[in-house]
Design goal:
Number of helices: 13
Mean pLDDT: 76
Low-confidence stretches: 1-56, 254-260
CATH topology of the largest domain: Jelly Rolls
Strand order of the largest sheet: 3-4-5-6-13-8-11-14
Oligomer: single chain
Number of strands: 14
Order of helices and strands: EHEEHEEEEEEEEEEHHEHHHHHHHHH
């Protein structure tokens, strides 16, 4: 079977591969769909069993950016991307498990730094770190710290770029499920609009959910499947379906009666704006909570639920981002940068920066100059 693809500049896969049919399920054929065009000899709207074609020896490509998979998904049912960049080295593997449902597994050894990424339009993205941690920066939406034991849920009407910051070098093992809403509305899930609304808060926003033991175990099984290559597609699909079922039925879902109202969202966003307005003199908790009409405890709780991290982490991330910008400029002395960011002593700033970025400010600036 000929399956041309993108392989660096030549457009040829790194090595040939064969395909086998491994999985069947019942689907409903629409007369205008790609599937009905492929099965044009059958009447439109007739239910049939379709075999999903999955590579047993995946085509492999060199990865140039974290958005390469978006183009390749239109040409291949499964593929691997080889990362060999200063920001990260390792493999990204992508599987088309069902129409409207992709699975991505990134297993990298990552250095400190940032890389651009993108949320695909019209899709629900569910991502979690199995090992390591990352900080995701969305335009106008702030930072979201993604660590093990957390799931970030995001839906975008449009392709949305963001920055993926690695603050600590080491292993980066992430599992991401990318779903079209129609996939969840149709059989076998048949989720209602109310059930789907328990995941992302609204278009353009993110929501972080804690993962219980069963959900975490399921993700680990997906990241490190204990089966041979021949049974891998079936295993990954069944485990991914299991994860979705557990997630939607989990007691961790917030009941409708306790969902935050729109005014709470606006208050939390105002709190974040006030917190980061002056990094050299951020407001105290009591002042901040009073300004938005919440108690201290309610603000701390709701802020962490809404943004996925505490107020203190939000402030620290903003300071570290500004620190990197000022160090990149190269004009200010490190002591002056520390003062600008609200650190009384430069040593405290150096300690915080090294803890977050793995390098002292001086080492960071020196590396930039080389």
């Amino acid at each position: 079977m000929n399956n041309p693809g993108l392989g660096g500049s030549s457009g040829v896969p790194i090595y040939p591969h064969r395909y086998i049919m491994v999985l069947t399920w019942h689907v409903y054929i629409d007369g205008n769909s790609e599937y009905s065009r492929n099965f044009h000899h059958l009447p439109a709207n007739q239910g049939i069993s379709i075999m999903t074609i999955m590579a047993t020896s995946f085509p492999q490509f060199d990865c140039h950016s974290s958005t390469d998979w978006l183009a390749l998904r239109n040409k291949h049912e499964a593929f691997r991307l080889r990362w060999d960049q200063p920001r990260g080295r390792g493999w990204e593997t992508c599987y088309h498990l069902a129409p409207g449902f992709w699975l991505r597994i990134l297993d990298l050894e990552q250095a400190c730094g940032s890389m651009p990424a993108q949320m695909p339009q019209g899709h629900l993205s569910l991502a979690s770190m199995v090992e390591g941690e990352a900080t995701l920066e969305f335009p106008q939406k702030g930072y979201f710290e993604l660590t093990t034991g957390q799931l970030i849920c995001n839906y975008q009407d449009n392709d949305t770029p963001f920055q993926d910051h690695c603050t600590k070098p080491g292993r980066y093992l992430m599992v991401a499920l990318i779903l079209a809403p129609e996939f969840l509305r149709d059989s076998p899930f048949a989720f209602s609009t109310d059930e789907l609304s328990t995941l992302p808060p609204q278009n353009g926003n993110n929501r972080c959910l804690p993962l219980d033991t069963e959900l975490s175990r399921c993700l680990k099984d997906i990241a490190s499947p204990p089966v041979d290559q021949r049974r891998l597609p079936l295993y990954l699909q069944s485990k991914s379906y299991e994860f979705l079922c557990l997630l939607l039925s989990s007691s961790l879902q917030v009941p409708r009666s306790t969902r935050r109202a729109a005014r709470d969202h606006r208050a939390l966003e105002e709190a974040r704006r006030r917190l980061l307005d002056d990094l050299s003199q951020p407001p105290r908790l009591a002042e901040l909570s009073r300004s938005i009409g919440m108690s201290d405890s309610k603000l701390k709780q709701r802020f962490k639920e809404y943004y996925g991290h505490p107020l203190s982490v939000c402030l620290l991330q903003a300071r570290m981002k500004e620190a990197r910008r000022l160090l990149n400029d190269g004009h200010l002395a490190i002591a002056r940068i520390a003062e600008t960011l609200g650190y009384e002593h430069a040593a405290n700033f150096t300690t915080a920066f090294k803890r977050e970025c793995g390098l002292t400010p001086r080492e960071y600036r020196k590396r930039l100059n080389h």
